[in-house]
Every structure is written in C-alpha cells, then in structure tokens.
Amino acid sequence: MPFRIVSGDITKLHVDAIVNAANTSLLGGGGVDGAIHRAAGPRLLEECRTLNGCRTGEAKVTQGYDLPAKYVIHTVGPIWQGGHRGEEELLRSAYRNSLLLAREKHCESVAFPMISAGVYGYPKEQALEVAVSTIRAFLDEEENDMEVLLVIFDRGSFRFDVHLYSEISGYIRNTYDEEKERGSILGDAAKTVAFGGVSGSRRSIFARSKKEAIDSCEMECSAMPELMAAAAAPNDLKAALENLDESFSQSLLRLIDSKGMKDSECYKKANIDRKLFSKIRSDVNYRPSKQTVLAFAVALELDLSETEAFLKKAGFALSHSNKADVIVEYFIANRNYDMYSINQALFAFDQNLLGA
Ligand code: APR
Questions:
Q1: Does the pLDDT of residue 201 top 90, yes or no?
Q2: pTM score, two decimals?
Q3: Contact between 344 and 261 (Cβ < 8 Å)
Q4: Domain that includes residue 199, residue range
C-alpha cells in the first residue's frame, strides 16, 4: 500500500528509512529525536557530529545502527510562529527533501513522524494536511513507487477534519446502528466468482467460453444462485459493467478503459502498489480482497450501485454491519472520491485503510 497511516513507535518499524524530526544541530533532543537516538545507540550521534548540522527544511541521512531501519533521515521542521514566516513551505520542504533523499538511497519504504507537530508547536490539523498533501504529490509522480508510512505516536496528534468527522459520525449513527442485526447478503466469506467472458475490448486476451469458465471456477459462496441469476439476467449497469460474465480483473481493465484512465493513474489513485496491479492484470482469476475492490471502486469513481455490482463480481457486498463499509459508503454517496480523505477517516475511526 503506497500510503499508510499507522499508530505506534517509529523506532520499532522495519522499514528502509525512518525520518527524524530533529533540530538544526542534529545533536539530539527530546521527542522523537530523543527516542531515535536512544534506540539507535551512541554511534548515531557520532555520525551526526560529522554532518555539521542541518538547515530547516533540509534533510541529511545516516545509518540506522541499532534500529530495525537501515537509514535515519534527519530533517528539521519549522518552529510555528503564527504561520506568517513561511512555516508551511518549510514543512513541505522537510517532507519532500526527506522523500527525495529516501529515493536517492533506493529505499522502498520510509516512515515519517508528524514533523513539527510536537515541541515545535505546528497546529496538528494543519501539520497533518501538509504531511498528507506533500506525500501524496510525491507518490502521484509516475516514477515514485515507494511505501510511505505516516506514524501517529499519540492519537492526540492526529487531528482529522472536525466537520467531516462529525458528518461521518452522524452517518454511522443513522446507518450502522439501524442495520446492525442485518448482516451482509454475501458476507465477507464469499469466494471470488471468476467467469471467463467474450469481450471485444483490448482486454479480451483472457476470453474463454462462458461454460468452460463456469465449469472451471470453484464456487463456495452461498450467493451462487443469486450471482448465477444475475449473470443470466441482463444488467442495466453502465456498459463497462454490463458483461457480468467477465472476471473481476477483466471488468477492472475494461472500467479503466471506459473511464479513459491510464493504468498507473488508476492504481495510484486506488492506493494500490504497482506490483499488485501487475498481478491483477495478468491473472484473469485473480481473487481480490474487499479492500482492493473498494479501493478501485473509489479510484474509478463508481456510484453506489456500480460499486455494489463491482463488489458482487468479486463475491463481496457493502455491509451496514461493517463500520468501514459504512464510512466508505458515506464518501461514495457524497461523491467524495479522495482516497487520502477516506483513509484518514478510516484511521480516525480505527478501521482498516483502503488500498493494498
Ligand atoms: N514515534 C513516532 N512519533 C513520535 C515518537 C515516536 N517514538 N515520539 C514522538 N513522536 C511524535 C510526537 O507525538 C509528535 O507528533 O513526533 C511528532 C513530532 O514531535 P517532536 O518530536 O516534538 O518534534 P518537533 O515538533 O518536530 O520538534 C522538534 O523537538 O525533540 C526535539 O530535538 C528535537 O528540537 C527538536 C524539536
């Protein structure tokens, strides 16, 4: 998953690099700086002494020593002085220069604390917005295939959009409670249903006879009669979804075409890493997780009924007895397809994030 928000202690993470919210001396301090030096051991300070400090917004790298991480990227965030001294620009630079340095060291994964959101007093909601938007801009660049984690050490420093939080809370209250006893029709235990189909699009490399495909696929989910009925009956969903005989991966590729998207644009928007997408593209019977299907539904900006049809193809359904589903349903119903906002909301409500 290219972008992930996680709770925990950054010094414990097994990633290629962790980022230290240091001060310009690079000679240690409190907060995450102190924690990293303690965990890395005295050799970290010895190497830091050779770096001659670091300017605010810039970044320098050392070995990780006793840390699980291979590298420590030391950056210095701005001290908050009211917001009119270029603090935002300096904070963005701290994140971006750290990401560029991680790329230079060929890191596949890098973890950030909330830079400047502690001792340096940057307002937490604004610090989160700068962090997420700067990381997103970096990951949206075609050549940047890295896993970036934003580590929330104490929940108090995660200040999600208050207005959106209360809107979603209201939606959960109305939807989630009223349906609690009603489980999902298909449930999450349903297996993927993969049909081969005849399709005229460029994706027909998987085309197989419908009978051969149905005979060959294992059906364990109780929803089989329902799905077979749907497969037999004509479907009024958009052209891209109309052919219910298609497998999940065939439909996904056809939907990407029908939306005029590039593959990379779609999987990046879905917070899906490139390797997983290649696997989906090359395997007609790929069995996606529900999170993966939902992530692509968001990236393709499907409406609720299209999302339901897309989920059903993979043997899943939106369930009002699942809080994460209710939260994603809120965003789709309000046509808010911003994956970063959705994942911040899921994190705020202690739910698994979308993507893979
Ligand atoms: N893992 C992850 N995040 C952590 C950890 C940890 N072990 N410890 C603290 N944090 C979080 C804090 O909760 C905060 O959200 O790191 C964020 C940044 O807080 P600070 O460490 O205070 O860093 P900052 O606000 O950038 O101030 C930097 O503080 O420690 C000194 O030497 C440092 O002078 C520099 C200043």
A1: no
A2: 0.83
A3: no
A4: 163-242
